[in-house]
Amino acid sequence: MKMITHNTRLSCPKRSLISFDKAAPRSPRGNAGSRLYIFAGDGYEGATLAHHDANTANAIPRAAASAPRLLYVVSEDWYFLSHRLPMARAARDAGFEVHVATRVKDGAAAIEAERFILHPIPFARGHLSPLASLATILALRRIHRDLAPAVTHHVSLQPSVLGLIAALGRPGACVNALTGLGYSFTSNSVKARLVKLAIGPALRLLLDRGGIVSLVQNGDDRAALMALGIPKSRIALIRGSGVDVKRLAPLPEPPGPPTAAFVGRLLDDKGIRTLVDAHRLLRAQGSDARLLIAGTPDPANPASVTPEEAASWNNEPGITWLGHVDDIAGLWARAHLAVLPSRREGLPLSLLEAAACGRAMVATDVPGCREIVIPGENGLLVPVDNATALADAIGQLLRETEQRAQFAAAARRLVIEEFSAETIGRQTVALYRHLLEMQNSS
Question: All domains of the chain, ordered by start, with CATH?
Answer without folding.
Answer: 16-242+420-441 (3.40.50.2000), 259-418 (3.40.50.2000)
